[in-house]
Specification:
Blueprint (H helix, E strand, L loop, with lengths): L19 H5 L10 E2 L10 H11 L11 H21 L6 E4 L2 H13 L7 E5 L8 H10 L2 E5 L10 H5 L6 E7 L11 H10 L3 E5 L11 H4 L3 E4 L10 E5 L1 H5 L24 H17 L18 H28 L4 E3 L9 E6 L4 H9 L3 E2 L2 E2 L4 H6 L7 E5 L6 H16 L1
Parallel strand pairs: 1-11, 3-4, 3-5, 5-6, 6-7
Antiparallel strand pairs: 2-8, 7-8, 9-10, 10-13, 12-13
Helix pairs in contact: 2-10, 3-10, 4-5, 10-11, 11-14
The structure holds pyridoxal-5'-phosphate (PLP).
């Protein structure tokens, strides 16, 4: 290991807006001492999120309505969830759809949207995406008789270019599905440039933001996404998902639905009774994210009140602070890994999240993951459902060891990981 600790002193963690120790104090799970580099699979959650879920569930809580406190509590949980998600994504709260998972939402919308597809229409998917933003579209296209066009990425650089997407577009293209960031190698494709090309041919742009949203600020309009999905359990929240779209676009889509259930948007896309307590957990997670950029101050995280128009600005400031902090840790990781013999890092795109895919010459990455787990360091090995990407990289279905950074990781944990991996390469 050749990392030089002096070269990577954290610039923002103690003195500036972001204070990792103050952040960590909110996570009961971190008291175990386990170093969690498994955030891309699901982050740990702060106590406040659990408390919001528990207090909403234990109510009083009834079905939505306005005639009792318990009904109003349910109504408020839904309204607050939509506003929180809208602030996070810079979207319209009337265009926020709740889902159990991004996979479920994408399957649902693939069925809704493909009703209008005809034989000869074309759908575009990429080799970089998680399977949840590939297979629902491929299967819907098969049912409709539509043609699937595949876009590859450069396996040497990890980049997926707008030109590569543009090359497969035509006036027959109905929908283009692209990830905002790869959960395997972190690549962030140039979404705005891709969106321009997609819209030039009159197609819809469906963006998977599940990995991206944990690491960078989202602005639906500037990304050019017609649909954007994310999953709060990847950014300190509970296990569920969100789809954002313009309300007018949602108005133009008609799902199958029950006769007595509302025809209103976005509710007509949310089947059955909503999980009010989980929604409250999402709101608490968004409030916690908004606080991260102020964690260096003495103020505690707070719930956003109804008249707080500042949360969006606080979320943007937080994401800048978190990105800077995670990039410092990433740089230390990369220097350390570069000095290890027989270690290949596949995460190379200039624009990417702090998620590194690592393989070891002649060694099974699963052995490295086990070796680390025995030392209380969690960084699993797999292709993590980014099967096409793993195969495209020449890694078959097994992928590699994935080291993902979260706002609660520390420089000391990174050093522990580097020391353990250096030992692994020598045994
Ligand atoms: C990039 C990406 N897209 C989609 C998903 C699927 O998300 P969900 O579990 O909410 O269906 C994941 C989960 O790991 C992911 O990382």
């Amino acid at each position: 290991m050749t990392s030089d600790p002096a070269a990577f002193e954290p610039a923002t963690s103690e003195t500036g807006a972001f204070d990792v120790d103050a952040v960590r104090a909110h996570f009961p799970a971190l008291a175990t001492g386990v170093a969690h580099f498994d955030g891309p699979g699901g982050t740990q959650a702060p106590r406040l999120v659990g408390e919001a879920i528990a207090s909403t569930l234990t109510g009083p809580l009834s079905n939505r309505g306005s005639s009792s406190e318990s009904e109003r509590n349910a109504d408020a949980a839904v309204a607050e969830f939509r506003q929180a998600a809208a602030d996070l994504l810079n979207a319209d709260p009337r265009g926020i759809v709740y889902g159990r998972s991004a996979t479920q939402l994408t399957y649902d919308f693939s069925r809704h949207l493909s009703r209008g597809w005809k034989i000869g229409d074309e759908i575009v998917v990429t080799r970089l995406d998680h399977d949840s933003n590939i297979r629902p579209w491929v299967q819907a296209a098969e049912r409709a008789g539509a043609v699937v066009r595949w876009v590859g990425f450069n396996p040497s650089t990890g980049e997926l270019s707008a030109d590569a997407v543009g090359a497969v577009l035509s006036e027959r293209t109905r929908l283009v599905a692209v990830t905002a960031a790869s959960n395997l190698i972190g690549t962030r494709p140039p979404l705005a440039a891709i969106a321009r090309l997609v819209h030039e041919v009159g197609a819809l742009f469906y963006v998977d933001g599940v990995h991206y949203t944990a690491h960078a600020s989202v602005d639906l309009a500037s990304m050019g996404a017609d649909f954007f999905t994310c999953s709060p359990y990847k950014f300190l929240g509970p296990h569920c998902a969100v789809l954002a779209a313009a309300p007018a676009l949602l108005e133009s889509i008609m799902p199958d639905k029950l006769l007595p259930s509302t025809n209103a948007v976005p509710e007509r896309f949310e089947f059955g009774t909503l999980p009010y307590e989980t929604m409250a957990g999402v709101t608490a997670a968004v409030d916690f994210l908004a606080w991260l950029g102020e964690s260096g101050s003495s103020d505690a995280p707070r719930a956003t009140d109804a008249v707080d128009a500042e949360r969006r600005a606080r979320l943007v400031a937080s994401s800048i602070a978190v990105e800077a902090y995670e990039n410092e840790l990433r740089a230390a990781l990369e220097v350390g890994l570069a000095g290890m013999l027989g270690v290949t890092v596949h995460s190379r795109a200039p624009e990417r999240t702090p998620t590194l895919l690592v393989t070891f010459e002649g060694r099974d990455p699963a052995h490295a993951a086990r070796y680390l787990a025995e030392r209380d360091i969690l960084a699993p090995a797999d292709s993590f459902y980014a099967l096409e990407a793993s195969r495209w990289l020449g890694l078959g279905d097994h992928g590699g060891l994935r080291v993902g950074l979260a706002p609660y990781n520390t420089r000391a944990e990174v050093d522990r990981l580097l020391t353990a991996l250096a030992d692994f390469t020598r045994v």
